[in-house]
Amino acid sequence: MSPVAPSADVPAAAATEAPAAPATTTPADAAAIPNAAPDAAAAAPAPAPSARTLLKQFQQEFKAFRDCLPLAIGIDKQILARMPGVERKAMRAALGIHTGSLRYLRAMEKATVRYDLDGTAGAEVTETHRAHAKETLQQRFKKEAERKKAERDAEREAGKAAREAAQAEEADKLRQEKLLQLASKFSRT
User: What is the DSSP secondary structure assignment for residue 68, as one 8-state letter?
Assistant: First the structure.
């Protein structure tokens, strides 16, 4: 490919270079520079809220979250319709925190109806979903009981080891006293 020849009206150097910036800065130009930085900062997207922050926002705005009602299936679509700017990943994480909470699972265990964002009753809660909530709660309680038992056992073992160490220290102390008594008895003074 051949280079494009500059036109006769434009010098060769000017045809290939970008227009030059003014060599001197006027006070108006200097005043415009600081204002450019805030505009650039304002144009930068704000960081997405965390899942917990988003959940708090849901609880403030929506009755179903505030009252911990069983959520309608497809509630994520309702949220996106009302809050189109929400990040899907953060929304799903917030929903996971909410639906995995003990309060929500206890509500689901006994629920018969699901609710939309405004708290309006909708579809029925199936027995499968109630059973899942009940099973999840039982697993959590069992896991917590096992954790507490292991903690008690560890404390018991630590106490036993401490008692044994104290007994060994006391026995050593007695042995040292007896040795000193024997040494003083048989020493030549």
Answer: T
Domain carrying residue 95 = 51-125
Rank 4-13, 115-124, 128-137 by mean pLDDT and report only the highest.
Answer: 128-137
Tokens 């108006």 appear where? 28
67: Cβ–Cβ under 8 A, 6 or more apart, which residues? 119
68 and 117 fall within a common domain: yes
Looking at residue 87, which CATH number applies to its domain?
1.10.1710.10
From residue 73, give the alpha-carbon distance in Å to each of 78, 117, 133: 10, 11, 15
> What is the average pLDDT score of the chain?
79
pLDDT category at 47 given cuts 50, 70, 90 is low
* DSSP summary character for residue 121: E
Query: Is residue 132 domain-resident?
Result: no
- Three-state DSSP at 114 gives strand
1 falls within a domain: no
- Please name every residue paired with 71 in a beta bridge, in sequence order, or none if there are none: 115
pLDDT at position 181 is: 87
